[in-house]
Specification:
Elements lengths: L3 E6 L13 H16 L3 E6 L15 H25 L4 E5 L8 E2 L2 H9 L3 E5 L9 H12 L3 E6 L4 E2 L11 E2 L1 E2 L1 H6 L7 H10 L3 E5 L3 H5 L6 E3 L1
Parallel strand pairs: 1-2, 1-6, 2-5, 3-4, 3-5, 6-10, 9-11
Antiparallel strand pairs: 7-8, 10-11
Amino acid sequence: MYNRVLLKISGEALSTTGQPIHFDTVLRTAEGIAALHAAGVQLGVVVGGGNVMRGRTAKEQDRSRLDHMGMLATAINALALEDALERLGVPARVLSAVAMERFCDTFSAREAKRLLDAGTVVLFACGTGCPYFSTDTAAALRAAEIGADALLLAKNVDAVYSADPKTNPSATRYTQLSYDKVIADRLQATDLTAITLCREQGLPILVFALDQLDRVAAGEVVGTSIR
């Protein structure tokens, strides 16, 4: 098991069809996070904002402005998770890359580490605080800043595949990969900036399905390990 990890979950993990934020779904996601916390793992969480807005979907719109809207979406999601975790009895705190003192505290690596040492789940909002960077990249950055043992990428598929398994049933499922193979084969594990940063920092990545969080907490071998 890990001592300290950075968990990245998608905004879609908090939604259902027709509802950008579905609070029963938020609670189920929080229960998975609580299982990791109960296992004694110091836990930082980056949540995406794709259930509300994705900057990369910009067409005629200004990309930077849509990215800013996406950052605000991650703050909404982080606050929803904070509420759910606290109702489960798990101490949680939102730290935002963009100052918004009325709603949450502003990120600093020192404060994040202090909270993690105290057993608080730290929810990182607003990505990196800069446009053009994905929340996967933000997760890799925060993982490096807090000294995480691993980056856990909870996805809507159970591993990394050579192609989309939903459209290509013969796609190869990987259990072990190198950073270089992910980059060379353009595998959809995470974006290029995130995987490059993890390679430079020697930060292991585990890609798995969100509904396998309890299995990760139990120390089971799941998903795809990237080193």
